[in-house]
């Protein structure tokens, strides 16, 4: 059985940034990927995401409105571990 994909909507994409809204139904995932740019995530929901990474699985507790920054090169699959929709906005710095 295939896993549901998270829905992404690109809000801005220019020479300097790409801003994407991500919406995850319960259990939905981004699919495994590698970040090509530094990025900032702003959670629009409070909850738990499961991160499947090369060094193992991790849970991330995110709080609505509390942003975090990551450097280029992060590799993972991001999965909504909640029983409700989870939303965040990601800004990639080109």
What can you tell me about this protein's structure?
- The chain is mainly beta and 94 residues long.
- 0% of the residues lie in helices and 57% in strands.
- The protein has no helices and nine strands.
- Strand 1 and strand 2 form a beta hairpin.
- The protein starts with 6 loop residues before the first strand and ends with a strand.
- The model has no long low-confidence stretch (mean pLDDT 96).
Give a quick summary of the entry:
The protein is mostly beta strands. 0% of the residues lie in helices and 57% in strands.
Number of helices: 0
Average pLDDT for all residues: 96
Rounded Rg: 13 Å
Count of domain modules: 1
Helix/strand-derived category reads: mainly beta
Total number of β-strand segments? 9
CATH topology: Jelly Rolls
- The assigned CATH architecture is Sandwich
CATH C-level category: Mainly Beta
Straight-line distance between termini: 36 Å
From the spread of the alpha carbons, the general shape counts as globular
Percent of residues in helices comes to under 10%
- SS strand fraction: over 45%
Strand order of the largest sheet: 1-2-9-4-7
> What series of H and E elements makes up the topology?
EEEEEEEEE
CATH homology group: Jelly Rolls
Largest sheet: 5 strands, antiparallel
Note poorly predicted spans: none
């Amino acid at each position: 059985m295939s896993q549901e994909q998270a829905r992404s909507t690109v809000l801005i994409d220019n020479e300097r940034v790409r801003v994407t809204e991500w919406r995850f139904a319960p259990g939905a995932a981004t699919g495994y990927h590698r970040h090509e740019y530094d990025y900032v995530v702003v959670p629009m929901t409070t909850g738990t995401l499961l991160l499947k990474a090369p060094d193992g699985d991790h849970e991330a507790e995110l709080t609505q409105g509390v942003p975090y920054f990551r450097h280029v090169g992060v590799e993972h699959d991001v999965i909504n571990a909640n029983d409700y929709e989870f939303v965040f906005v990601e800004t990639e710095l080109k």
